[in-house]
Protein backbone atom coordinates (compact mmCIF):
# COMPACT_ATOMS: atom_id res chain seq x y z
CA UNK A 1 0.00 0.00 0.00
CA UNK A 2 1.40 3.36 -1.01
CA UNK A 3 1.80 6.33 1.34
CA UNK A 4 -0.80 8.24 -0.70
CA UNK A 5 -3.41 5.55 0.03
CA UNK A 6 -2.65 5.79 3.74
CA UNK A 7 -2.76 9.60 3.82
CA UNK A 8 -6.22 9.88 2.24
CA UNK A 9 -8.13 8.12 5.07
CA UNK A 10 -6.05 9.95 7.69
CA UNK A 11 -6.79 13.29 6.05
CA UNK A 12 -10.49 12.45 5.89
CA UNK A 13 -10.58 11.55 9.60
CA UNK A 14 -8.79 14.76 10.52
CA UNK A 15 -11.22 16.82 8.46
CA UNK A 16 -14.19 15.09 10.11
CA UNK A 17 -12.76 15.63 13.59
CA UNK A 18 -12.00 19.26 12.76
CA UNK A 19 -15.54 19.77 11.50
CA UNK A 20 -17.04 18.28 14.66
CA UNK A 21 -14.81 20.42 16.89
CA UNK A 22 -15.75 23.60 15.00
CA UNK A 23 -19.42 22.65 15.06
CA UNK A 24 -19.31 22.13 18.84
CA UNK A 25 -17.61 25.49 19.39
CA UNK A 26 -20.04 27.32 17.11
CA UNK A 27 -23.03 25.76 18.88
CA UNK A 28 -21.72 26.91 22.26
CA UNK A 29 -21.16 30.43 20.93
CA UNK A 30 -24.64 30.49 19.38
CA UNK A 31 -26.24 29.47 22.68
CA UNK A 32 -24.44 32.33 24.43
CA UNK A 33 -25.71 34.87 21.89
CA UNK A 34 -29.41 34.36 22.52
CA UNK A 35 -30.38 37.63 20.86
CA UNK A 36 -29.15 36.28 17.51
CA UNK A 37 -31.60 33.38 17.92
CA UNK A 38 -34.59 35.20 19.38
CA UNK A 39 -34.59 38.29 17.14
CA UNK A 40 -35.36 36.44 13.86
CA UNK A 41 -38.02 34.37 15.63
CA UNK A 42 -39.66 37.45 17.13
CA UNK A 43 -39.64 39.15 13.74
CA UNK A 44 -41.15 36.08 12.07
CA UNK A 45 -43.91 35.65 14.64
CA UNK A 46 -44.69 39.35 15.07
CA UNK A 47 -45.08 40.17 11.38
CA UNK A 48 -47.26 37.14 10.69
CA UNK A 49 -49.35 37.87 13.81
CA UNK A 50 -49.96 41.42 12.56
CA UNK A 51 -50.87 40.29 9.05
CA UNK A 52 -54.59 39.69 9.81
CA UNK A 53 -54.80 43.19 11.24
CA UNK A 54 -53.33 44.70 8.08
CA UNK A 55 -55.17 42.81 5.35
CA UNK A 56 -58.35 41.90 7.19
CA UNK A 57 -59.59 38.85 9.11
CA UNK A 58 -61.36 37.16 6.18
CA UNK A 59 -60.41 33.44 6.36
CA UNK A 60 -60.39 32.96 2.57
CA UNK A 61 -58.03 35.88 2.00
CA UNK A 62 -55.66 34.80 4.76
CA UNK A 63 -55.62 31.21 3.50
CA UNK A 64 -54.75 32.43 0.00
CA UNK A 65 -51.91 34.63 1.23
CA UNK A 66 -50.55 32.26 3.90
CA UNK A 67 -48.06 30.16 1.84
CA UNK A 68 -46.35 33.14 0.25
CA UNK A 69 -46.34 35.28 3.39
CA UNK A 70 -44.93 32.55 5.61
CA UNK A 71 -42.16 31.82 3.13
CA UNK A 72 -41.28 35.48 2.54
CA UNK A 73 -41.16 36.19 6.27
CA UNK A 74 -39.00 33.11 6.85
CA UNK A 75 -36.62 34.36 4.15
CA UNK A 76 -36.39 37.84 5.66
CA UNK A 77 -36.00 36.50 9.20
CA UNK A 78 -33.18 34.26 7.99
CA UNK A 79 -31.46 37.23 6.40
CA UNK A 80 -31.58 39.26 9.64
CA UNK A 81 -28.89 37.09 11.23
CA UNK A 82 -26.75 36.50 8.14
CA UNK A 83 -24.76 39.70 8.59
CA UNK A 84 -23.27 38.47 11.88
CA UNK A 85 -22.29 35.03 10.51
CA UNK A 86 -18.59 35.92 10.10
CA UNK A 87 -18.56 39.40 11.64
CA UNK A 88 -17.34 38.47 15.12
CA UNK A 89 -14.66 36.14 13.79
CA UNK A 90 -13.44 38.81 11.39
CA UNK A 91 -13.18 41.47 14.08
CA UNK A 92 -11.27 39.36 16.61
CA UNK A 93 -8.96 37.70 14.07
CA UNK A 94 -10.44 34.22 14.37
CA UNK A 95 -11.43 34.18 10.71
CA UNK A 96 -7.84 34.70 9.62
CA UNK A 97 -6.73 31.87 11.91
CA UNK A 98 -9.33 29.56 10.35
CA UNK A 99 -7.74 30.08 6.96
CA UNK A 100 -4.42 28.84 8.39
CA UNK A 101 -5.78 25.55 9.75
CA UNK A 102 -4.65 22.29 8.08
CA UNK A 103 -8.20 21.32 7.07
CA UNK A 104 -9.92 23.26 4.29
CA UNK A 105 -11.89 26.39 5.12
CA UNK A 106 -14.86 24.62 3.49
CA UNK A 107 -15.53 22.64 6.69
CA UNK A 108 -15.43 25.72 8.94
CA UNK A 109 -17.99 27.50 6.74
CA UNK A 110 -20.14 24.38 6.55
CA UNK A 111 -20.11 24.12 10.36
CA UNK A 112 -21.05 27.80 10.75
CA UNK A 113 -23.86 27.47 8.20
CA UNK A 114 -25.20 24.36 9.93
CA UNK A 115 -25.24 26.12 13.30
CA UNK A 116 -26.93 29.14 11.71
CA UNK A 117 -29.66 26.87 10.35
CA UNK A 118 -30.13 25.10 13.69
CA UNK A 119 -30.39 28.45 15.50
CA UNK A 120 -32.59 30.20 12.93
CA UNK A 121 -34.08 28.05 10.18
CA UNK A 122 -35.02 25.03 12.28
CA UNK A 123 -37.06 27.03 14.87
CA UNK A 124 -38.78 28.94 12.05
CA UNK A 125 -39.78 25.70 10.37
CA UNK A 126 -41.04 24.15 13.61
CA UNK A 127 -43.12 27.25 14.39
CA UNK A 128 -44.62 27.46 10.92
CA UNK A 129 -47.57 25.03 11.46
CA UNK A 130 -48.74 27.07 14.45
CA UNK A 131 -48.62 30.30 12.45
CA UNK A 132 -50.25 28.54 9.51
CA UNK A 133 -53.16 27.65 11.80
CA UNK A 134 -53.46 31.30 12.79
CA UNK A 135 -53.54 32.29 9.11
CA UNK A 136 -56.22 29.69 8.33
CA UNK A 137 -53.97 27.62 6.05
CA UNK A 138 -55.77 24.40 5.04
CA UNK A 139 -54.65 21.33 6.98
CA UNK A 140 -53.47 19.64 3.77
CA UNK A 141 -50.62 22.14 3.50
CA UNK A 142 -49.14 21.76 7.02
CA UNK A 143 -46.81 18.82 6.38
CA UNK A 144 -45.60 20.20 3.07
CA UNK A 145 -45.00 23.60 4.67
CA UNK A 146 -42.87 22.06 7.42
CA UNK A 147 -40.80 19.87 5.07
CA UNK A 148 -40.30 22.62 2.50
CA UNK A 149 -39.15 25.08 5.17
CA UNK A 150 -36.73 22.53 6.63
CA UNK A 151 -35.14 22.06 3.21
CA UNK A 152 -35.43 25.66 2.09
CA UNK A 153 -34.08 27.40 5.19
CA UNK A 154 -31.02 25.14 5.12
CA UNK A 155 -30.36 26.30 1.55
CA UNK A 156 -30.90 29.92 2.62
CA UNK A 157 -28.29 29.60 5.37
CA UNK A 158 -25.73 28.16 2.95
CA UNK A 159 -26.43 30.70 0.21
CA UNK A 160 -26.42 33.55 2.72
CA UNK A 161 -22.92 32.53 3.79
CA UNK A 162 -21.68 33.65 0.36
CA UNK A 163 -23.11 37.13 0.81
CA UNK A 164 -21.85 37.33 4.40
CA UNK A 165 -18.35 36.36 3.26
CA UNK A 166 -18.33 38.91 0.44
CA UNK A 167 -19.37 41.75 2.76
CA UNK A 168 -17.59 40.74 5.97
CA UNK A 169 -15.00 43.54 5.67
CA UNK A 170 -17.65 46.27 5.26
CA UNK A 171 -18.91 48.26 8.24
CA UNK A 172 -22.57 48.40 7.15
CA UNK A 173 -23.15 45.62 4.66
CA UNK A 174 -26.93 45.26 5.18
CA UNK A 175 -28.20 46.61 1.86
CA UNK A 176 -25.35 45.15 -0.21
CA UNK A 177 -25.81 41.78 1.46
CA UNK A 178 -29.50 41.81 0.55
CA UNK A 179 -28.73 42.73 -3.07
CA UNK A 180 -26.24 39.87 -3.35
CA UNK A 181 -28.30 37.06 -1.85
CA UNK A 182 -31.84 38.01 -2.88
CA UNK A 183 -31.50 36.81 -6.51
CA UNK A 184 -30.02 33.54 -5.23
CA UNK A 185 -32.92 33.09 -2.81
CA UNK A 186 -35.57 33.37 -5.53
CA UNK A 187 -35.49 29.69 -6.74
CA UNK A 188 -35.87 28.47 -3.15
CA UNK A 189 -38.81 30.82 -2.60
CA UNK A 190 -40.52 29.78 -5.85
CA UNK A 191 -40.30 26.03 -5.22
CA UNK A 192 -41.15 26.41 -1.52
CA UNK A 193 -44.34 28.36 -2.06
CA UNK A 194 -45.18 26.23 -5.11
CA UNK A 195 -44.99 23.04 -3.06
CA UNK A 196 -47.30 24.36 -0.34
CA UNK A 197 -49.79 25.72 -2.87
CA UNK A 198 -49.81 22.38 -4.72
CA UNK A 199 -50.49 20.54 -1.44
CA UNK A 200 -53.39 22.89 -0.66
CA UNK A 201 -54.88 22.43 -4.13
CA UNK A 202 -54.68 18.65 -3.82
CA UNK A 203 -51.90 18.10 -6.36
CA UNK A 204 -48.69 16.12 -5.95
CA UNK A 205 -45.91 18.26 -4.53
CA UNK A 206 -43.05 15.74 -4.57
CA UNK A 207 -41.50 17.43 -7.62
CA UNK A 208 -41.15 20.78 -5.84
CA UNK A 209 -39.68 19.11 -2.77
CA UNK A 210 -37.25 17.21 -4.98
CA UNK A 211 -36.10 20.50 -6.49
CA UNK A 212 -35.66 21.95 -3.00
CA UNK A 213 -33.58 18.92 -2.01
CA UNK A 214 -31.49 19.31 -5.17
CA UNK A 215 -30.94 23.00 -4.41
CA UNK A 216 -29.86 22.08 -0.88
CA UNK A 217 -27.39 19.47 -2.15
CA UNK A 218 -25.96 21.95 -4.67
CA UNK A 219 -25.70 24.68 -2.05
CA UNK A 220 -23.99 22.32 0.42
CA UNK A 221 -21.41 21.39 -2.21
CA UNK A 222 -20.73 24.79 -3.78
CA UNK A 223 -21.71 27.56 -1.35
CA UNK A 224 -18.93 26.87 1.22
CA UNK A 225 -16.37 26.83 -1.60
CA UNK A 226 -17.60 30.19 -2.91
CA UNK A 227 -17.72 31.63 0.62
CA UNK A 228 -14.18 30.41 1.32
CA UNK A 229 -12.90 32.20 -1.78
CA UNK A 230 -14.80 35.35 -0.81
CA UNK A 231 -13.33 35.28 2.71
CA UNK A 232 -9.80 35.01 1.38
CA UNK A 233 -10.44 37.96 -0.94
CA UNK A 234 -11.87 40.00 1.94
CA UNK A 235 -8.89 39.19 4.18
CA UNK A 236 -6.40 40.07 1.45
CA UNK A 237 -8.02 43.47 1.03
Automatic annotation (TrEMBL):
Coiled coil ranges: none
Transmembrane segments: 12-30, 37-55, 114-135, 141-168, 175-197, 209-231
Annotated membrane topology: Multi-pass membrane protein
Chief location of this protein within or outside the cell: membrane
InterPro entries, per database record: Cyt_c_biogenesis_CcmB, Cyt_c_CcmB_bac
GO annotation terms (biological process): cytochrome c biosynthetic process; cytochrome complex assembly
Keywords assigned by UniProt, alphabetized: Cell inner membrane, Cell membrane, Cytochrome c-type biogenesis, Membrane, Transmembrane, Transmembrane helix, Transport
Record-given protein name: Heme exporter protein B
Amino acid sequence: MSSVDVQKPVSGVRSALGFMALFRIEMLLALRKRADITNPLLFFVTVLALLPLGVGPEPELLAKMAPGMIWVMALLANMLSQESLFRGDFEDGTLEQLTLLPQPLYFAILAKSLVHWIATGLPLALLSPLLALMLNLPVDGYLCLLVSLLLGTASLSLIGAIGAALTVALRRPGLLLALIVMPLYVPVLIFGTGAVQAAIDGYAYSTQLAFLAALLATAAALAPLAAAGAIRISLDN
